[in-house]
Design brief:
452 residues; mainly alpha; 17 helices; globular
Length: 452
């Protein structure tokens, strides 16, 4: 295999390697969010607040539909990392071809499901009437690009599992530049409005997927993608499903709770929908730092756990948690200081900015707490324990949020009452995850030592 695109996760100092692994993932996440940010900014500035609400307000619907399948890509990451740690390179080829096969099937399922269920889901979240038709049009076109999106996600997971986080980033850089340029062209030059925004995103997704496929087809050794070998191998598929399905179900339920909360946000009108959509762009940027070090924990722990290097697993967990929490605190401090000036990138509507500021101060100021359960859950998944953190997250975050909406918020339907559930749920889930990790760690190490 090409050493220049590989990180030795089993030997040597860890801190610098974790940062080298995580930073490209964080930047890639930021670039992925730039897809949505570019869509939102062009729509909000050149089409109108209804278009901004149509795009930003549909995020929970999109995440609800795609979360299960993006969760499966976590299974791909763990699978290949385990094969490396176990010293089974001959099985990596099966993992690569199984992953791409699953990606293609997932993409076409999402294409159909997105078009079929988009209108009922938009009605479920009480999308404002003036934004409903634009949202349907945007999502119908957006979901046509799902096969490309899934190929990028799964192919990137294969590359990350061996430490190559740079080339997925390069693919996204090309795609984002293409997306921004086409967004402006399809709205200001060719007057396609919100449809042009969606078409630009699909074309950019196709470009990033094409680059990932090209990288895999030119890999050396067992990582090379050969279309004649494309099939789902039963043993590899079972591992992907074992790890990925719980992660995906967690995402589905998590997104369902956000759909319920989005319904509450939409109840305050188009201004609140647009303002929260603008604020969430910055919160997503910060979340990608948490996700990057969570992915680092999954991959590094996966390899070292398979190699039975338990002290390195503990070291990976501690470093990833410290890096995630520290980086979130610093970046969110910057966003909060920018405040309204940052929100004006997306909207000039004063009412929307007021709602956006409230969302920032009652969410982003406490977002570092979310790292406590994300990194801990990633560490357990690297050890092969995927269902346990899923259950904790579903109960601590998703169920708690839904209960809050139908009890506390129903009794006091105030905007602050609605959004304060985010930091409350982060604290509850973080404490529960830490306690569970203490027991899972001991059991997982004992199981691996016994060779079970």
């Amino acid at each position: 295999m090409s050493k220049s695109n590989t990180i030795d996760m089993l030997n040597g100092p860890l801190a610098l390697k974790l940062v080298q692994f995580a930073i490209p993932i964080a930047i890639a996440g930021v670039l992925q969010q730039l897809f949505n940010s570019a869509d939102a900014a062009v729509a909000g500035r050149f089409v109108g607040p209804e278009a901004l609400a149509a795009i930003g307000g549909t995020t929970p619907v999109v995440m609800l539909l795609i979360s299960l399948f993006t969760g499966l890509s976590v299974g791909t990451n763990v699978l290949v990392a385990l094969r490396i740690g176990q010293g089974h390179p001959e099985k990596i080829g099966d993992a690569v071809h199984t992953s791409i096969a699953v990606a293609l099937v997932s993409g076409f399922i999402l294409l159909v499901a997105g078009i079929v269920f988009v209108e009922p889901l938009l009605a479920l979240i009480s999308m404002p009437e003036d934004a409903f038709a634009p949202a349907v049009l945007y999502l119908d076109i957006f979901f046509l690009g799902m096969p490309f999106s899934m190929v990028y996600n799964f192919g990137s997971a294969v590359l990350r599992s061996k430490g190559d986080t740079r080339r997925p980033l390069y693919a996204l850089i090309v795609a984002v530049i293409l997306n921004v340029g086409l967004n402006i062209a399809f709205v200001t030059v060719v007057p396609w409005g919100i449809a042009g925004v969606a078409i630009a995103t699909d074309i950019a997704n196709a470009a990033s997927a094409g680059l990932i496929v090209w990288f895999l087809m030119h890999e050396e050794g067992p990582y090379r993608l050969q279309w004649r070998k494309l099939r789902a191998t039963k043993a590899e598929l079972l591992v992907i499903l074992k790890i990925g399905v719980p992660a995906g179900l967690q995402g589905v339920v998590f997104s369902l709770s956000n759909v319920v909360i989005q319904s509450g946000i939409n109840s305050f009108g188009t201004a609140s929908t647009a303002g929260v959509a603008a604020a969430l762009n910055f919160e997503f940027y910060t979340y990608f730092l948490i996700n990057a070090f969570t992915q680092a924990a999954v991959t590094f722990v996966g390899q070292n756990y398979a190699a039975r290097k338990f002290k390195r697993c503990d070291r990976v967990f501690g470093l990833c948690l410290a890096f995630a929490m520290g980086s979130v605190l610093v970046l969110n401090a910057v966003w909060l200081m920018l405040g309204a000036n940052a929100l004006r990138i997306f909207t000039t509507d004063d009412a929307a900015i007021e709602y956006g500021l409230m969302r920032m101060w009652y969410g982003m100021a406490f977002q570092f707490i979310a790292a406590t359960y994300e990194v801990t859950a990633g560490t357990m998944r690297g050890m092969g324990w995927s269902m346990t953190p899923t259950v904790i997250t579903i109960v601590g975050s998703c169920v708690l949020r839904i209960v809050w909406i139908f009890t506390v918020f129903a009794a006091n339907p105030d905007f602050i009452t609605l959004i304060i559930i985010y930091p409350i749920s982060w604290v509850v889930t973080g404490v529960a995850m830490f306690i569970t990790y203490y027991f899972v760690r001991k059991r997982a190490y004992a199981k691996a030592t016994a060779g079970v």
